[in-house]
Amino acid sequence: MDTLASLSPVSSSTRREEVVRALRRAILTGELQAGDHLREVALAERLGVSRPTVRESMRQLIQEGLLTQEPYRGTRVVEPQPETLLEIADVRSALEALAARKAATRGAALLGEPFEKALADLEQAATSGDQSLMHEAHVNFHGLVYTASGSQLLEQVWNLIRARIAFAVAWDQMAYPDSAWGERQLQRHRAIVTAIMGGDAASIDHVVNEHIGAAARDVVDRVNKVQGRRDRRIRSA
Is residue 119 exposed (0-12), middle (13-18) or buried (19+ Cβ within 10 Å)? Predict the structure, then answer.
């Protein structure tokens, strides 16, 4: 906990949201590593907020899948399992391709402006270099695909799976620790928008599945490498 130099007191107007962003940013930048424990009292003192505010913030990150809470062991950063990440990718691919195909039937005139704004938000977040803002913009883009579908059921599904997708997006982001991650995401998401505006179902399926599949493969590769290094250290100890 003493190494979290980036954490500083947050403003009173949006305390919970800012604490969530600060903790998420620490996880995304690697300041908090998988398996690290979070101590409520220490965080409250570091961030200049109440313990209930820290508790609520950690609860949101638990829902997103970035933290886990265990009886008698406290709260710690999740150690992702490759099979979980691949399963999330399979579900995402099927649902998001369906939502994108439905969105395409509604016409470019209706959807052009909101998708352009979503891309602009992604670009602005990438330019800022703020990992938490990039994460929010990335998740919001995918939420827009579901909203743009015009399907109330798919919007309801999004609300149910948003936390799982936020988890997958976070680990996708951590798979690219360099500054080029934002530009790669812009390229991939522009391709999704282009496919939706073009209205060709086959192209939509290909672009959505390729984007989600490539991200999942990158994340699983990173997780396996990290776990492999950890196993080698344990064997050599």
Answer: middle
- Report the alpha-carbon distance of residue 166 to residue 168 in Å, rounded: 5
Q: Are 74 and 38 in contact (CB under 8 A)?
A: yes
**What is the residue whose two structure tokens read 């809470």?**
69
**Domains of the chain with bracketed CATH:** 15-77 (1.10.10.10), 82-228 (1.20.120.530)
**What count of Cα atoms within 13 Å lies in the side-chain half-sphere of residue 124?**
9
Q: How many CB atoms within 10 Å of residue 207? A: 23
Instruction: Give the Cα-Cα-Cα angle 90, 92, 97 (nearest 5 degrees).
Output: 105
Q: Output the six-digit token pair for 158.
A: 């999004």
Task: Find tokens 């938000």 and name the residue.
Answer: 121
Tens-digit pLDDT profile for residues 123-176:
998 888 888 888 899 999 999 999 999 999 999 999 989 888 888 888 888 776
